């Protein structure tokens, strides 16, 4: 089974650059500062038209916690339906109950709605109460993969749990380490965890092309972009 690289992006230009650099898949998000939310319709449609590799949009109606009220579940349902209509290959979401357990009922219902799209359960998993029990629940709900940093801020810090998850999951679901993955640590993460898919951003900030800023309102207009050289390094290491 070849190892795959998913790159998280926050604008269409970055998605195009990541695809050109050799990414196998794109996770498409908005609002980096909030941990990622659902892209707008225009952003979804434009990126789908310009990028041919698989794209999994984030389906998350707001920042903050991962407990979603009924009206937010309605929003998630409509956004999943839109992603199916626009021809995406998968979606990314994650739902928790107030007590930190997986929201099994809504997750299973949304996976069924998304079919035949892949479903990645995102890093809401890293906020759950019992990760090994949660793994079984997410498998039972029919998700395709779990994106996780091993319940630590960065995946290299959580690699012991990630290894446990990979072993427990077997071939029933894909465990995809993400957060803090780069060309300096991916070889160790591959060897230690046994994972076959990895998630990164190769994120850099690009200066704004604007020539004028109001001196009375100091602001940083740097834009999220991706480092094509880093993506190529990651791909090379994954192929070894």
Characterize the structure shown:
This protein is an alpha/beta fold and 240 residues long. It has one domain (4-203, 218-238): Copper homeostasis (CutC) domain (TIM Barrel, Alpha-Beta Barrel), CATH 3.20.20.380. Helix content is 37%, strand content 17%. The chain has 8 helices and 10 strands. Strand 4 (90-93), helix 4 and strand 5 (118-121) form a beta-alpha-beta unit. The model has no long low-confidence stretch (mean pLDDT 96).
Lateral strand order in the biggest sheet: 3-2-1-8
Strand segment count: 10
Alpha-beta classification = alpha/beta
CATH-defined fold name: TIM Barrel
Over all CA atoms, what is the radius of gyration? 18 Å
- Domain count, please report it: 1
Main sheet summary? 4 strands, parallel
Determine and state the CATH class. Answer: Alpha Beta
* First-residue to last-residue Cα separation: 13 Å
Could you list the spans in which at least 5 consecutive residues all have pLDDT below 50?
none
Q: What is the CATH superfamily classification?
A: Copper homeostasis (CutC) domain
- H and E order: EHEHEHEHEHEHEHEEEH
Overall body shape: globular
CATH structural architecture: Alpha-Beta Barrel
Summarize model confidence as the mean pLDDT.
Answer: 96
- Helical element count? 8
State the share of residues found in helices, binned by percent.
25-40%
- What is the percentage of strand-forming residues? 15-25%
């Amino acid at each position: 089974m070849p190892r795959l690289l998913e790159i998280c992006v926050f604008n269409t230009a970055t998605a195009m650059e990541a695809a050109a650099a050799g990414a196998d898949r794109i996770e498409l998000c908005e609002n980096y500062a909030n941990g990622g939310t659902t892209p707008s319709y225009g952003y979804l449609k434009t990126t789908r038209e310009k990028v041919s590799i698989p794209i999994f949009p984030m389906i998350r109606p707001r920042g903050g916690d991962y407990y979603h009220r009924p009206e937010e579940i309605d929003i998630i349902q409509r956004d999943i339906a839109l992603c199916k209509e626009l021809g995406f290959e998968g979606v990314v979401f994650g739902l928790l109950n107030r007590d930190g357990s997986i929201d099994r009922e809504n997750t299973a219902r949304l996976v069924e709605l998304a079919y035949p799209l892949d479903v990645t359960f995102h890093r809401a998993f890293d906020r759950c109460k019992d990760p090994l029990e949660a793994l079984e629940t997410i498998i039972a709900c029919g998700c395709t993969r779990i994106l996780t940093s091993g319940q630590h801020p960065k995946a290299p810090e959580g690699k012991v749990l990630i290894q446990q998850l990979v072993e427990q999951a077997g071939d029933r679901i894909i465990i995809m380490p993400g957060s803090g993955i780069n060309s300096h640590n991916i070889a160790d993460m591959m060897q230690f965890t046994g994972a076959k898919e990895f998630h990164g951003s190769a994120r850099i900030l690009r200066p704004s092309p604007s020539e004028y800023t109001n001196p009375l309102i100091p602001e940083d207009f740097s834009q999220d972009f991706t480092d094509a050289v880093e993506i190529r390094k990651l791909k090379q290491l994954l192929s070894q």
